[in-house]
Amino acid sequence: MIKKGDKISILSGNYKGLKGVISKVFPKKKKVIVFGINMIKKHIKPNAKNPKGGIIKKEAPIHISNLKKEAPIHISNLKKEAPIHISNLKKEEKKKIDDSLSV
User: Fold this and answer.
1) Secondary-structure percent of the chain, ordered helix, strand, coil, rounded to 5
2) Average pLDDT rounded to a whole number, residues 4-33
3) Average of per-residue pLDDT across 95-103
4) Distance of alpha carbon 57 from alpha carbon 59, whole angstroms
5) Is the N or the C terminus of the chain less surrounded, counting Cβ atoms within 10 Å?
6) The pTM is what?
7) Of 73, 62, 71, which Cα lies nearest the Cα of 16?
8) pLDDT greater at residue 100 or residue 19
9) Residue 63's pLDDT is what?
10) CA-to-CA distance for 23 and 6, rounded, in angstroms?
């Protein structure tokens, strides 16, 4: 389930590979608006708010099938490197370690 504020990455389209945050969700249309991605130019007629009219940039919706929710990273999920045991090394590698320790 995708909701407002989730971190996502885009899987396909012109913005493939970009990451962003969801700012608005349209559940019936199955589309979302991602902050700063899929910007379009919209021509505005003169009106009371904007007496000159002009061109504005705004985000257009993206279908949820083109998105993937980013999983939060937890420290417990990270793999830890296994320690190297000397018994598992070859004779040449053991000799190099012994030489470096003796110096």
Assistant:
1) 20, 30, 50
2) 91
3) 63
4) 7
5) C
6) 0.62
7) 62
8) 19
9) 94
10) 9
The one-character DSSP state at 11 is -
Rounded Cα gap, residues 44 and 85, in angstroms: 70
Residue 56's SS3 state is strand
Place of tokens 């493939």: 16
Distant-in-sequence, close-in-space partners of 39: CB < 8 Å, separation ≥ 6? 57, 58, 59, 60
Q: In what order do the strands lie in the sheet with 7-10?
A: 62-63, 31-34, 19-26, 7-10, 67-69
The residue assigned the tokens 């979302």 is 32
- Give CA–CA dist 86/33, Å, rounded: 55
Compute the distance between CA of residue 80 and CA of residue 38 in angstroms, rounded to an integer.
Answer: 39
Helix (H, G, I), strand (E, B) or coil at 38: coil
Q: Find the angle CA(90)-CA(102)-CA(96) to the nearest 5 degrees.
A: 25
Provide mean pLDDT across the span 81-103. 61
User: For residues 33 and 14, what is the distance between their CA atoms, to the nearest angstrom?
Assistant: 15
